[in-house]
Automatic annotation (TrEMBL), chain A:
Gene assigned in the entry: ctaD
GO MF annotation list: cytochrome-c oxidase activity; heme binding; metal ion binding
Pathway as given in its UniProt record: Energy metabolism; oxidative phosphorylation
Sequence similarity: Belongs to the heme-copper respiratory oxidase family.
Cofactor: heme; Cu(2+)
InterPro entries: Cyt_c_oxase-like_su1_dom (IPR023616), Cyt_c_oxase-like_su1_sf (IPR036927), Cyt_C_Oxase_1 (IPR000883), Cyt_c_Oxase_su1_BS (IPR023615), Cyt_c_oxidase_su1_bac (IPR014241)
Name of the protein in question: Cytochrome c oxidase subunit 1
PROSITE patterns referenced in this protein's UniProt entry, alphabetically: COX1, COX1_CUB
Function: Cytochrome c oxidase is the component of the respiratory chain that catalyzes the reduction of oxygen to water. Subunits 1-3 form the functional core of the enzyme complex. Co I is the catalytic subunit of the enzyme. Electrons originating in cytochrome c are transferred via the copper A center of subunit 2 and heme a of subunit 1 to the bimetallic center formed by heme a3 and copper B. This cytochrome c oxidase shows proton pump activity across the membrane in addition to the electron transfer. Cytochrome c oxidase is the component of the respiratory chain that catalyzes the reduction of oxygen to water. Subunits 1-3 form the functional core of the enzyme complex. CO I is the catalytic subunit of the enzyme. Electrons originating in cytochrome c are transferred via the copper A center of subunit 2 and heme A of subunit 1 to the bimetallic center formed by heme A3 and copper B.
Catalytic activity: 4 Fe(II)-[cytochrome c] + O2 + 8 H(+)(in) = 4 Fe(III)-[cytochrome c] + 2 H2O + 4 H(+)(out)
Gene Ontology cellular-component annotations: plasma membrane
Keywords: Cell membrane, Copper, Electron transport, Heme, Iron, Membrane, Metal-binding, Respiratory chain, Translocase, Transmembrane, Transmembrane helix, Transport
The organism of origin for this protein: Neobacillus novalis
TrEMBL record, chain B:
Main location per the UniProt record: membrane
Transmembrane segments: 28-51, 71-91, 103-121, 141-166, 186-206
PROSITE patterns in the cross-refs: COX3 (PS50253)
Pfam families for the chain: COX3
The name this protein goes by in its record: Cytochrome (Ubi)quinol oxidase subunit III
Family of the protein in this entry: Belongs to the cytochrome c oxidase subunit 3 family.
PANTHER family listed in its UniProt record: CYTOCHROME C OXIDASE SUBUNIT 3 (PTHR11403:SF9), CYTOCHROME C OXIDASE SUBUNIT III (PTHR11403)
Subcellular localization, as worded in the UniProt entry: Cell membrane
Keywords, sorted A to Z: Cell membrane, Membrane, Transmembrane, Transmembrane helix
GO cellular component: plasma membrane
C-alpha cells in the first residue's frame, strides 16, 4: 500500500468509509453497524426479560412491551444477524475464491448504505411517536389496525433495507460465478463460500415476495388500498403467505452461512480435511432448495386444511435429513483429527448439541397435529432461539474470533474469548431451555405479563437470570475488542497456524488489491495443499502485471439517503402537506444520483506493476 | 481488450456484450436480477388471482364487465412489436452498426410510449366509466398494483433506454457501452414476457369469467 495510501486525519478516514467500494472496508462497516444493532436488539431482549422476570410486573406497559418484542425480533433478524453474516461474507468470500474484489463493488457499497438507512429509519420510530407493535411477522390483521406510525416505520424501513440485501445477494452470486481464481472449480470452493453462494441464491428468490408483501401493506396503510381490508374484499392470509414464503427461506439464509463458518472451523482446528466434502455441498444445496417448500408450516393453525398441512409437515421433516448429514460430517471431521481447543472451536463444540436440540424441537413443531398445542406458546420461542442463537449467533461469535485477525490484523485475546463463550453458552441454555417447559405448561408467547401461582414464576426468573449471563458474555467480548485494538499487536498471514484456505495465504489485513498475483488453486484447501507440499505460500497463476481497481464513490450513500428522505414523505403525506413534496424530493435525489452514475463514465484506475514491486521490497507482506 | 479502447468494425468481437470481465459480470448479474423480478411478479400475480373480483358490493364492476379486447389487443401488439424492434437493434449492435441500432432503439421507444398511452387511457376509462379505482375494492387494488407495476417497469425502461441513447449519441459503440445497451434490451424483453402473462391471466381469463 506504501505508494498509494497516505496518512489521513479522522475526517479523511470517515470520508474514506463513506465512499469506499472495497469489500474489506464494507465488511468492517457491516460489522460495526450489525454489531451496533445487535447490542440494541440485545438491550431490548434484556428489557423483555426484566419485565417477565416476576409475575404482574409493571417495568414496562403492555403497549411498550409489544413495541419492544416487535423491535427485538425485527432488529435481530434484519439488522443484526443478516448484516453480521454479510460482514463475514464480504470480508472472507472474495479472499477464499482468490478474487481482488466482488463483481460489483459499487453495488456492494449501495447494498450496505441501503441496509444502514433502512435500519436507522426503523429505529427512529422510538423517537417519533412509537415503534411498530404488530410482531416481527407483522400479521396484517394486527398491522392494519395498529395506531400511529409504528408499522409504517416497519414497512418502509424494511423495504429499504431489504433492497440492500437483495442486491448484495446478486453481487455475491456473480462474484462466485465469475471471479474465481484459476483452478478454483466449484467443487474446490471452501464451504463458507458454498454456503454464501446458496444463501445468496435464496436471497434472490426469497426477498422479492417480502418486497411485494411490504408494498401491499404500505399501499393499504398509507395510500388507501384494500388488500387486507376484509370488508372491501381483502384477505389477510395473503400477507401470511407472502411473509412466510420469504420468512422460512430467510431462516435458512441465516443458518447456511453459519453452517459454512462451522465447517471451516471444524476443518481448521481438527487439522483435517472436512469429512464428506461433496455430501456437505450437496446437503447445502438441498437445504436451500427444500427451504422454499415448507413455508406453510408456520400456518398450520391458520386453517389451510388437512391436506396442505400434511404436505407441508412432511416436506418440513425432510429438511432434517440433509441437516443430519451435516451434523455427522462435522463429528467425523473431528474424529481422528488432532483437535485444538481455540475459542472458535469452543463455539463449534457448543453449537452441535445446541443446534441438535433446535432441530429436534423443529421436527416436533413440524408435526402439524401436535403443533396445534405448541403454536404461539413459549415452546416455539424456545425452538427458534435454539436454532437462531444456538446456530447463527454462536457462528457469528465464532467467526468474529476466527476472522478478526484477517479483518483487523490483530488477534482477540483467547482467555477472554473463552470467558465470553462460557458466559454466553451457559446463559443461552439457562434462558431458553426452560422455555420449552413454560410452553408445554401453557404459557403463551407475546404476553407482557402473567399471574402468580400458575407455575410460571420460578422458570421465568431462571430464564431472566440466563439473559444476564449472556449480557455479561457480550460485555466481555466488547472489552476484549477494545483491549485488543488498544494493544494493537500485529499478526502475520496465518495467525492460527492451521489455515487451509486462500484467505490465510495473504497478509492480515490484506492489501487493498488482495492478491498481487492471482493464486493457482490445485485442489480443495488450496493453501493446506501447498503447505503439505513444503511450500511457503501459493504459486502464482499469472505474471506480475497492472491491477485494475474501481474508483471510490459517494453516490451509493446518496441513492440510499434519497430513499430515506422519501420514506419520511410517504409516511407523513396524509398528516402534513409537506409529505408529497418530500417524497418527490427524496426520489429526485435517488434517481438523480442513479442518473449521474449512469452518465458519468467510471473506468476505475490501474495500479502499476512497478508500484507492486515496490511493496514487496519494502517488506509489506506482514 | 480494454473497455475504453476505440473500436472498429474489424476489431468488434462476436459477443460484445460479454467480452470484458465487467461485461460478463453485468450479463450474469442482470439475468439473476431478472430471476428475482420473476418472483416479484409471481407474487403479484398470486395476489391478483386471490383478490380477483373480490369487491364490497354487488354494484361494483367485475373483471368481465371491465375488460375490452380491442384495446388490450392494440396494447399487446405495440409492446410485442417493440420487443421485435429491440431485437433488430441488438442485431445491429453486434454488427457494429451504431446508426442503425439507434434507429431501431428509437422505434422501440416510440412503441413503448404508445403502449403506455393506451394504458393511461385504459385506466382513466375504468376510473371514470366504472368507478373502478385503486381504493374502491380489493380487486381494484390488486388490479392496479399488478398492471401498474408492469406499467412502471415500462416507464423505467423507456427512461433507461432514452438516457443510454442520449448519453452515447455522439460516442458510438464501445465495449464499455455495448453491454449497457444489451442489458437494457434484455430488460425490455422481460417486460414483454410479463405482459404476455398479464394479457393471459388478467385480460383473457378475466373475460372468460
Ligand atoms: C430441522 C429444521 C427445522 C424445522 C423442522 C423447523 C420447523 C419449524 C416450525 C414447524 C415452526 C412453526 C412453529 C409454530 O409457529 O407453531 C418453526 C418456527 C420458527 N423457526 Fe424453525 N424449523 C427448523 C429450523 C429452523 C432454523 C434453522 C431456523 C433459524 C435459523 C428456524 C427459525 C424459526 C423461527 C424464527 C420460527 C418462529 C417464527 C415465528 O412464528 O415468529 N427454524 N420452525
Ligand atoms: Cu419455517
Amino acid at each position: 500500500m506504501s505508494t498509494i495510501a497516505q496518512k489521513k486525519g479522522f475526517g479523511g478516514t470517515l470520508w474514506d468509509f463513506l465512499t469506499t467500494v472495497d469489500h474489506k472496508k464494507i465488511a468492517i462497516l457491516y460489522l460495526i453497524a450489525g454489531g451496533f444493532f445487535f447490542v440494541v436488539g440485545g438491550l431490548e431482549a434484556v428489557f423483555i426479560r426484566i419485565q417477565l422476570a416476576v409475575p404482574n410486573n409493571d417495568f414496562v406497559s403492555a403497549g411498550a412491551f409489544n413495541q419492544i418484542i416487535t423491535m427485538h425480533g425485527t432488529t435481530m433478524i434484519f439488522l443484526a444477524a443478516m448484516p453480521l453474516l454479510f460482514a463475514f461474507m464480504n470480508a472472507v468470500m472474495p479472499l477464499q475464491i482468490g478474487a481482488r474484489d466482488v463483481a460489483f463493488p459499487f453495488v456492494n457499497a449501495l447494498g450496505f448504505w441501503l441496509f444502514f438507512f433502512g435500519g436507522i429509519f426503523l429505529n427512529l420510530s422510538w423517537f417519533l411517536g412509537g415503534a411498530p407493535d404488530a410482531g416481527w411477522t407483522s400479521y396484517a390483521s394486527l398491522a392494519i389496525h395498529s395506531k400511529g406510525h409504528g408499522v409504517d416505520f416497519y414497512v418502509l424501513g424494511l423495504q429499504i433495507a431489504g433492497l440492500g440485501t437483495l442486491i448484495g445477494g446478486i453481487n455475491f452470486l456473480v462474484t462466485i460465478i465469475n471471479m474465481r481464481a484459476p483452478g478454483m472449480t466449484y467443487m474446490r470452493m471452501p464451504l463458507f463460500t458454498w454456503s454464501t453462494f446458496v444463501a445468496s441464491a435464496m436471497i434472490l428468490f426469497a426477498f422479492p415476495p417480502l418486497t411485494v408483501g411490504l408494498t401491499l401493506m404500505m399501499f393499504d396503510r398509507l395510500f388507501g388500498a384494500n388488500f387486507f381490508e376484509v370488508a372491501m374484499g381483502g384477505n389477510t392470509v395473503i400477507w401470511e403467505h407472502l411473509f412466510w414464503i420469504f420468512g422460512h427461506p430467510e431462516v435458512y439464509i441465516l443458518i447456511l452461512p453459519a453452517f459454512g463458518i462451522f465447517s471451516e472451523i471444524f476443518a481448521i482446528f481438527s487439522r483435517k480435511r472436512l469429512f464428506g466434502y461433496s455430501s456437505m455441498v450437496f446437503a447445502t444445496v438441498l437445504i436451500g432448495f427444500l427451504g422454499f417448500m415448507v413455508w406453510a408450516h408456520h400456518m398450520f393453525t391458520t386453517g389451510l386444511g388437512p391436506v396442505a398441512n400434511a404436505i407441508f409437515a412432511v416436506a418440513t421433516m425432510a429438511i432434517g435429513v440433509p441437516t443430519g448429514i451435516k451434523i455427522f460430517n462435522w463429528l467425523f471431521t473431528m474424529w481422528g483429527g488432532s483437535v485444538k481447543f481455540t475459542t472458535p472451536m469452543y463455539y463449534a463444540f457448543g453449537f452441535i448439541p445446541s443446534f441438535v436440540c433446535g432441530g429436534v424441537t423443529g421436527i416436533m413443531v413440524a408435526t402439524a397435529a401436535a403443533d396445534y398445542q405448541y403454536h404461539d406458546t413459549y415452546f416455539v420461542v424456545a425452538h427458534f432461539h435454539y436454532v437462531i442463537v444456538g446456530g447463527v449467533v454462536l457462528a457469528i461469535l465464532a467467526a468474529t474470533h476466527l476472522w478478526w485477525p484477517k479483518m483487523f490484523g490483530t488477534m482477540l485475546n483467547e482467555t477472554l474469548g473463552k470467558i465470553t463463550f462460557w458466559f454466553f453458552f451457559i446463559g443461552f441454555h439457562l434462558t431458553f431451555f426452560i422455555q420449552h417447559f413454560l410452553g408445554l405448561w401453557g404459557m403463551p408467547r407475546r404476553v407482557f405479563t402473567y399471574l402468580p401461582g400458575q407455575g410460571f414464576d420460578a422458570s421465568n426468573m431462571v430464564s431472566s437470570i440466563g439473559a444476564a449471563f449472556m449480557s455479561i458474555g457480550v460485555l466481555v467480548l466488547l472489552y476484549n475488542i477494545i483491549m485488543t485494538q488498544v494493544k494493537n499487536v500485529k499478526v502475520g498471514n496465518d495467525p492460527w497456524g492451521d489455515g487451509r484456505t486462500l484467505e490465510w495465504a495473504i497478509p492480515s489485513p490484506p492489501p487493498f488489491y488482495n492478491f498481487k498475483q492471482l493464486p493457482l488453486v490445485r485442489g480443495l484447501d488450496a493453501l493446506w495443499l501447498e503447505k503439505m507440499a513444503g511450500k511457503k505460500g501459493m504459486t502464482p497463476a499469472e505474471p506480475l502485471g497492472d491491477i485494475h481497481m474501481p474508483n471510490a464513490s459517494f453516490i451509493p450513500f446518496m441513492i440510499s439517503f434519497g430513499l430515506f428522505i422519501a420514506a419520511f414523505g410517504a409516511m407523513y403525506h396524509k398528516d402534513y402537506s409537506w409529505g408529497l413534496p418530500v417524497i418527490i424530493l427524496g426520489l429526485l435525489v435517488t434517481f438523480g444520483s442513479m442518473f449521474l452514475r449512469s452518465i458519468k463514465d467510471d473506468h476505475g484506475f490501474h495500479i502499476h506493476k512497478e508500484d507492486l514491486v515496490d511493496d514487496t521490497e519494502k517488506g509489506a507482506k506482514a | 481488450m480494454h473497455a475504453e479502447e476505440k473500436m472498429t468494425y474489424e476489431k468488434w468481437p462476436a459477443a460484445p456484450e460479454k467480452t470484458t470481465l465487467e461485461a460478463k459480470n453485468k450479463f450474469i448479474g442482470f439475468w439473476l436480477f431478472l430471476g428475482g423480478e420473476t418472483t416479484l411478479f409471481a407474487s403479484l400475480f398470486a395476489t391478483y388471482l386471490a383478490l380477483k373480483d373480490k369487491v364490497p358490493s354487488t354494484e361494483a364492476a367485475l373483471a368481465k364487465d371491465l375488460f375490452d379486447l380491442p384495446l388490450t389487443f392494440v396494447a399487446t401488439m405495440l409492446l410485442l412489436t417493440s420487443s421485435l424492434t429491440s431485437v433488430y437493434a441488438m442485431y445491429h449492435m453486434k454488427n457494429f452498426a451504431f446508426k442503425k441500432m439507434m434507429v431501431w432503439l428509437g422505434l422501440t421507444v416510440l412503441l413503448g410510449f404508445g403502449f403506455l398511452g393506451t394504458e393511461v387511457y385504459e385506466f382513466s376509462h375504468y376510473v371514470h366509466t366504472y368507478k373502478h379505482t385503486f381504493t374502491s375494492s380489493a380487486f381494484g387494488s390488486a388490479f392496479y398494483t399488478l398492471v401498474g407495476f408492469h406499467g412502471a417497469h415500462v416507464a423505467f425502461g423507456l427512461c433507461w433506454i432514452l438516457s443510454l441513447m442520449i448519453r452515447n449519441s455522439k460516442r458510438g459503440l464501445s465495449l464499455y457501452n455495448a453491454p449497457k445497451f444489451y442489458v437494457a434490451s434484455l430488460y425490455w424483453h422481460f417486460i414483454d414476457v410479463v405482459w404476455v402473462f398479464i394479457f393471459t391471466v388478467v385480460y383473457l381469463m378475466g373475460m372468460v369469467g
